[in-house]
């Protein structure tokens, strides 16, 4: 578009910004609707800290999975499949936090089920543009935080066989993360704090070993 | 069947390559941005030396700045920066530019300041965002090296007002008063633009600085008029005093 008059061009710029802002706001509203599913999933997932091993599947995994499924459907129909690729890329930062949380819960469920790690590639609904990789890394860090808390709580539930297994898994994950060269950014700070988590888990195992509880 | 640890390591080796490449790209862009900032600042200094020269000298100097300092900056944009966003695949290109153009944002703002100052000195106009976009588009290319964001444009022309203030004070007493009035008019129209966009961006800081610039010009003009009346019979003394008050406010 060409303008001979500067004022016209400024007005045009203003209209463009306003339109873009309105659109972003409508996307934000949609994101908060979508996040309700995540909050439900999170509330269900939080029960891992008080649920005995044998009840996890029915009381935690199944209800959480169904919330996540709703989230996933919402996400696909409102964002991934609805938007053009260009539009998606332009605005994805608006829902990247939600994706982080989704990935985190999914990673947690997968651990509870298989004691294994979901890879970034397995989240193929998000990796269309090889993106959300950093969201995956943030989700992994949340996973380590959460499992550290779980270690303490398994002892409270007298399930003394679990801390060792969690610890082995966390060590595998941590050593994988250690391969990456983080620079001084948010991810680096989070990664650096993981050593306290690992220490804490070690402490639990030490306490149990000392008392012949495992 | 590989162990869990082996499988996990395998995935992280892959991620590592990507993370390292991203970080290298980021660092190269930050470096380019810093160089653009430094060169733009230097160009602004050079421009401040030009308008005090006689008319004919001015054209020569503008040419020199264009072909030398400005070209150096353009080279950074078209070579070092452009290469970071050069992808055949449109989606990859978009993705990279979404994630990485923010690292040259600071340089771009300073660049817009220098460019808009040059535009004003040469054509007496406030540069438009489209024009900035055009200058950042290599000949024969269909798109600019980076897409200029409204916030960067507004930041750049906001900072321009500081340079205009310095110029107004410098030329006071030696140039036509209409040029100073033109500068004041331009600063006010930038204020209008910034105020119109207040809701969308945080521009309060820039608007405050701009207000201060306007006040500085007014105060200097006031002092000048008082002294002019006082020393109207002694042009030599007036000249000295004007020089002094320039140095104090500039």
Describe the structure.
The complex is a heterodimer of chains A (214) and B (250). Chain A has a domain at 1-94. Chain A has seven helices and no strands. Chain A has helices spanning 6-45, 56-80, 85-91, 96-114, 133-156, 162-177, 186-210. Chain A is elongated. Chain A starts with 5 loop residues before the first helix and ends with a helix. The mean pLDDT of chain A is 91. Chain B is mainly alpha-helical and 250 residues long. Chain B has two domains: 1-148, Translin, domain 1 (Methane Monooxygenase Hydroxylase, Chain G, domain 1); 161-249, no CATH class. Chain B has helices at residues 4-50, 55-84, 90-100, 105-123, 129-135, 150-171, 177-196, 204-230, 235-249. In chain B, α7 runs antiparallel to α8 (204-230). The longest helix of chain B has 47 residues, at 4-50. Chains A and B meet through α1, α3 and α6 of A and α1 and α3 of B. Chain B: This is Translin. Chain B: Its main location: cytoplasm. Chain B: It is found in: Cytoplasm; Nucleus. Chain B: GO terms for molecular function: sequence-specific DNA binding.
Radius of gyration of chain A: 22 Å
Q: Care to count the β-strands of chain A?
A: 0
Described by strand count, sense and barrel closure, the largest sheet of chain B is: none
For the residues shown, what is the average pLDDT of chain B? Answer: 91
Helical residues, percent of chain B: over 70%
SSE series of chain B: HHHHHHHHH
Distance separating the two termini of chain A: 73 Å
Main sheet characteristics of chain A: none
CATH superfamily of the largest domain in chain B: Translin, domain 1
Query: Any idea what the CATH architecture of the largest domain in chain B is?
Result: Up-down Bundle
- What general form of chain B does the structure show? elongated
Oligomer: heterodimer
Mean pLDDT across the residues of chain A is 91
Uncertain runs of chain B with pLDDT below 50, 5 residues or more?
A: none
Pfam families (chain A): Translin
Organism (chain A): Wallemia mellicola (strain ATCC MYA-4683 / CBS 633.66) (Wallemia sebi (CBS 633.66))
Subcellular location (chain A): Cytoplasm; Nucleus
Protein name (chain A): Translin
């Amino acid at each position: 578009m060409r303008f001979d008059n500067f004022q016209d061009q400024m007005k045009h710029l203003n209209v463009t910004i306003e339109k873009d802002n309105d659109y972003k706001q409508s996307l934000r509203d949609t994101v908060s609707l979508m996040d309700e599913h995540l909050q439900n999933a999170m509330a269900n997932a939080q029960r891992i800290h008080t649920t005995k091993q044998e009840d996890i599947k029915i009381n935690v995994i199944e209800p959480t999975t169904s919330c996540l499924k709703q989230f996933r459907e919402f996400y696909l129909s409102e964002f991934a499949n609805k938007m053009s690729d260009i539009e998606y890329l332009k605005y994805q930062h608006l829902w990247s936090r939600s994706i982080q949380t989704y990935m985190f819960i999914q990673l947690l469920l997968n651990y509870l089920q298989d004691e294994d790690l979901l890879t970034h590639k397995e989240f193929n609904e998000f990796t269309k543009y090889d993106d959300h990789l950093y969201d995956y890394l943030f989700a992994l860090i949340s996973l380590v935080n959460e499992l550290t808390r779980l270690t303490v709580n398994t002892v409270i539930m007298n399930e003394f066989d679990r801390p060792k297994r969690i610890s082995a898994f966390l060590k595998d994950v941590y050593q994988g993360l250690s391969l990456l060269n983080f620079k001084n950014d948010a991810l680096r700070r989070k990664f650096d704090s993981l050593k306290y988590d690992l220490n804490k888990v070690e402490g639990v195992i030490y306490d149990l070993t000392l008392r012949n509880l495992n | 069947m590989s162990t869990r640890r082996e499988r996990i390591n395998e995935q992280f080796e892959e991620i590592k390559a990507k993370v390292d490449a991203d970080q290298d790209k980021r660092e190269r862009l930050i470096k380019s941005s810093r160089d653009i900032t430094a060169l733009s600042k230097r160009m602004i200094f050079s421009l401040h030396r030009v308008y005090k020269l006689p008319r004919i000298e001015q054209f020569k100097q503008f040419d020199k700045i264009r072909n030398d300092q400005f070209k150096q900056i353009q080279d950074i944009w078209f070579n070092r920066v452009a290469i970071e966003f050069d992808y055949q695949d449109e989606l990859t290109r978009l993705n990279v530019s979404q994630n990485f153009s923010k690292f040259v944002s600071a340089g771009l703002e300073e660049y817009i300041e220098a460019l808009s100052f040059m535009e004003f000195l040469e054509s007496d106009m406030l540069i438009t965002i489209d024009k900035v976009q055009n200058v950042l588009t290599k000949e024969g290319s269909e798109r600019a090296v980076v897409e200029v964001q409204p916030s960067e444009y507004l930041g750049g022309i906001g900072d321009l007002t500081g340079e205009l203030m310095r110029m107004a004070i410098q030329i006071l007493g030696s140039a036509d008063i209409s040029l100073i009035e033109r500068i004041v008019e331009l600063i006010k129209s930038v204020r209008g633009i910034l105020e119109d966009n207040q809701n969308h961006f945080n521009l309060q800081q820039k608007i405050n600085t701009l207000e201060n610039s306007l006040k500085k010009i007014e105060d200097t003009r006031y002092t000048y008029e008082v002294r002019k009346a006082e020393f109207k019979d002694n042009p030599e003394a007036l000249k000295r005093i004007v020089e002094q008050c320039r140095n104090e406010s500039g």
